[in-house]
Amino acid sequence: MKPPCIIVVRYILPTLRVLIAKELIEVHGLRRTKAAKMMGLTPAAVTQYLKNVRGKTAVKTVESSDEAIKEISEMANHIANGNASSYDLLRDMCKICQTMRAQGLLCEMHRGILPDLERIDVCECGLHACLGEG
Prior knowledge:
Blueprint: H1 5-27, H2 32-39, H3 43-50, H4 59-63, H5 66-81, H6 86-102, H7 105-113
């Protein structure tokens, strides 16, 4: 059994970490150690994200959403400026996932790992966008 949540945990969250770390380092000029600390990660994890050892699977999918990229940039700004609470950052992260879900990107990935879903007429996540009806 592979519920849609597995897509978020295995693929989307690591990819968001990749894209946020890159933004913090490349756009905001933070050192890897500072970016890692601000993201609550180890410097080794950030290095792995930047070298595409971790989190590379869904980068193209996430980058296909202009809205998600905009939201990731906003989240990186909040982190870099240090003006966001933990709650704000969790809300930002959930907003990105909701955007991707509303655009049908999570369902597209879900179908990729569970081909049997191609035959399903009703999406259990409750969003008609997944079926091209929204």
